[in-house]
Predict the structure of Transmembrane protein.
Amino acid sequence: MSEITLLIAVIALALWPVVLFALRFLRERQKRLEYIERMTKDEQDEVTTKDLVISVLKKIGCQPKVNEENHITFKYQGDDFYIAAEEENRFIMIWNPWWGSINADNEALPYLKEIINLANVNSLVTTVYMADEDEKTIGLHSRCHTFFSPREGELEEHMKMLLDYFFDMHNVIKDNMNQLGQAAINEEEKKERVKVKGFSAYKDNTMPIEAKKEEEKKK
């Protein structure tokens, strides 16, 4: 047996326990999630908030994953979402980052800010606007902070209601912008790109909000 072959064999033997542990961990986690789906509401009270959220998201057809920041990421109706779960008190924060954007020097920006502020007054979902790193683009991010417990009713319907409400908020902002005649919302084709940490991970999928030019209005 050559030295290289021997070295490979030694490395394989050293890594084998790690591989077995990883496989066992994944198998146990899958069993735990399947068990959650069969549990009663009283039994679910003993389950972590994160596992409960993952189970519910799977039931409504999503494919949740846990990222490096321990957030639950997923897509719903084509939009990016992530959920931060608070284990100690059953609260969750749902974020819909970078669902829209506008250039910082766009003349429609003041109107957009006013519309967002007014929409936030009576909305379960709050929308915030923040500049990116180079301060050339203003991103729109919506969020919802809510109690998430089996005792609050049907969790699947509750989650779907919350997620659908984000799109209601989108439509309120879009409709008001269009009614004012100050800007039009143009959909950009969404492309799969490499994701990085933080809000910037979702910037590539943002929807630009551009002001209409006078020539376009006359057509």
Notes: Residues 100 and 207 are 4 Å apart (CA to CA). The mean pLDDT is 76. Residues 3-38 form the longest helix (36 residues).
